[in-house]
Amino acid sequence: MSDDEPRTERTRLAVAGARATTAAVVAGQPRKDVIRNTLFSVLLFVAILIALAGLAALLIQAFVEGRPALGFDLFTEPNSSDATIAGFRQAIIGSLMLIAGVIVLVVPLGVGAAVYLEEYANRERWWNRLIELNIQNLAAVPSIIYGILGLGFIVRGPLDLGFIALAGSLTLALLVLPIVIIAGREAIRAVPPSIREGSLALGATQWQTIRRQVLPASIAGIATGVILAISRAFGETAPLLLVGAATFVTFDPQFLSGDYTALPVQIFQYATRPQEEFRILSAAGIIVLLLVLLVMNSFAIWLRNRYEQKW
Amino acid sequence: MTEQERRTEEAGSGAAPDAEDRRGLSQGIAVAEGARPQKGLTEEKVFELNDVAVLYDGNPAVREISFDVFKNRITALIGPSGCGKSTLIRCFNRMNDLIPIARVEGEILYHGEDLYGPNVDPVQVRKLIGMVFQKPNPFPKSIYDNIAFGPRTLGMKGDMDDIVERALRRGALWDEVKDRLDENAYGLSGGQQQRLCIARCVAVEPDVILMDEPCSALDPISTGKIEDLMMELKDDYSIVIVTHNMQQAARVSDMTAFLIVELDASEKNRTGRIVEYDETQTIFTNPSDQRTEDYVTGKVG
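The joint structure predicted for all components is written out below.
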């Protein structure tokens, strides 16, 4: 036990130095650093405000312009060159048909591809790595390219379906398939190997393990991916223009024959007409489109939060 | 006389390993003689391993493994970390097949049949040889569905409620969960989850249960419960357990194999081999090899 008084000069200096350092650290950051930290967080906050301001401007603009036209008629009135009675009926029916077609195509193909890539493909093989790489690429390809693909191969070319809604569905399905595959793979990959081992150790086959353990456990992630893909497809305009979503359709569209249209296309068409009333209508259409997208995305987020499997 | 005949003859005479045999063992030769139980009779063998090696990408993880596993006995594999105990136990139910770079050499006989024969389906093997893992891995389902998964998937006939109850009773878990079979299995404690995994394993009525360090993630009370469970299960199943806990091996097992890890000539690769395999009593009180004695007395880690 030493007494409180330091014995030597050296010790005294050392103790004084230690005390000063401790005091400096414990007392908090120097003024300079505090200013820098605050400035940085303010800058980040401003960045968010700018992004939100842009979004808010869009919403407010659409709402202010389109408000007069909002009403039930919007959904039931057919396309017309008379602005007072025009509505989005065909466009909405067309969009719903296209989306139904996309779901039927994209769910089995997307989930099947995800299961293959995660469970069966041997990653040592070069072609599997190539497939993986290309799916990432496809998700980033501009949508107009899919439109050209649809025009060249589906509407004309080998499939030669003509300008029908089925062709539109096929084109949109190709567009959003990579999203479903990537989301599906993430969901399947999140299932820990211990679950698979436990199932296999009981004498189940690989397929039984996938069907009864892996897929049920990853269903929330897969469903979220599908919903996000659909909401993307719902809002796509460019590819649909190329595969023939005609802009003046007066009869209710059929899936396998005849002209069809979709909501974004119809909005575009109304917006380019000279009359003031049509521009109001197109703004109203934008509100409808945004509402649908908001509902779908919120549902996806809710679904993921509610059913997400926490490992 | 072949090795096999010599073994049988000696076992038949009820002789303990004599001095000659001990010399062979104390030279550290990695051959483990099939044990000669003091009881005298040759017991029924469930597994016979002859010169088994497991290689990952050409590097042997274990080699020259030869011993027998007896029916309705608990066989423990002990040894320091990295000596390949888990790798070895995974050979018994062909779980190493799931690892692309793993290759099993040598012969493993299960009730006399080659486990790795060309016509053997690993899925069928795993129905008969079950496994409990180190970290409890219940499925993300209800307790009932966890147990019922095996029988349903394998198409077992019978009243599912009965099967589930029987399995949970045998897993010493029924009383604790009988009122909440529909609850998610993840709500159980660690010890309960591991007993659930054991119950799940016995629900498909296997012949052998493999346990890879089943208690290493559990507290002492749960460990005690599972050790008691093992002693009960021994009557109906043959058990092979890997444990890094020597005292556990001494408490529960009938036969113990002691493995060590060696560096090869290039000092890069670690390979495990058996030093000694004998009745647990002998291993812990009167081992033949100095290395075994050092390990069980705690002189080396």
